[in-house]
Amino acid sequence: MRLLICIKQVPDSTTRVKVATDGRSIVTDGVTWSISPYDEYAIELALEHKDTAPDAVVSVVGPLGIADALRAVVEELKPDLVLCGRQASDDDEGFVGPALAEALGWPHVSQVTRLEPDSGQLWKEVEGGHEVWKVSGGAVLTVQKSAKDPRYPSLPGIMKAKKKEIPERSVAGVEDPVKLEIVKLEPPPARGGGKIFKDGDTKAHAAELATLLRDEAKVL
To answer: pTM (2 decimals)?
Structure first.
């Protein structure tokens, strides 16, 4: 079985993101880029399959922002299954997987947490449990967080990866059917200072806290 994984580079979760002066992009200087976390689970799901089926072939591509461009890559590499993370951690859209399935004319299964290599069964997370699906032929899976955390690469694996050539493909002539435009980016409002109750009457503090939660925080 040949598996193709679509990944996206996003700002690392520890990076302090700043809005650029144009108000529509972020400042990329000094940003540490990493694989989107849900895409890491897609990679782990594929590696688990390869652990049990050594003849499996796993390929990785980075989403180019348009499903039509990815469709061309899928048609070239001819995988049996395409795996994507459920959604990217930067824009939270969850758009690439379903759009790619639509472009290919393939079925799409979301919230996948497990892939059974022998039976071809998929575990799909639903409220209160999971469903078991059977896949035959090409399909696009969007992967949810699973029981197994993504593995860290070994040092020899990192050294081998550095020697790997990463092919790039032109998107010239590929038209994005969905026109999305970022109108404005803005940071969340600054958090206000907290209030500290010093030693004293506990009942009085509780009454004051209730008043603050009702009148200021407006959560009561």
So the answer is: 0.76
The whole-number pLDDT of residue 212 equals 87
* Domain membership flag for residue 202: no
Write out residues in the chain with pLDDT < 70, as ranges.
Answer: 63-65, 172-179
Question: Residue 135 sits in a domain of what CATH number?
Answer: 3.40.50.620
pLDDT given at position 172:
67
**Residue 11 maps to a domain:** yes
Location of structure tokens 């990866």: 161
Q: Is residue 42 part of a domain?
A: yes
Distance from C-alpha of 45 to C-alpha of 146, rounded to nearest angstrom:
8
Total count of domains within the chain:
1
String of DSSP letters for 118-138: TT-EEEEEETTEEEEEE--S-
CA dist 158 to 98, 153, 164, Å?
Answer: 32, 6, 10
- The answer to whether residues 26 and 11 touch, using CB atoms and an 8 Å cutoff, is yes
Number of C-beta neighbours around residue 110 at 10 A = 18
Q: Are 102 and 159 in contact (CB under 8 A)?
A: no
**H-run or E-run covering 52:** helix 37-52
What is the reported pLDDT for 220?
Answer: 77
Given a contact cutoff of 8 angstroms between Cβ atoms, the answer to whether 36 and 63 are in contact is: no
Domain encompassing residue 155: 2-163
Instruction: Report the alpha-carbon distance of residue 195 to residue 95 in Å, rounded.
Output: 42
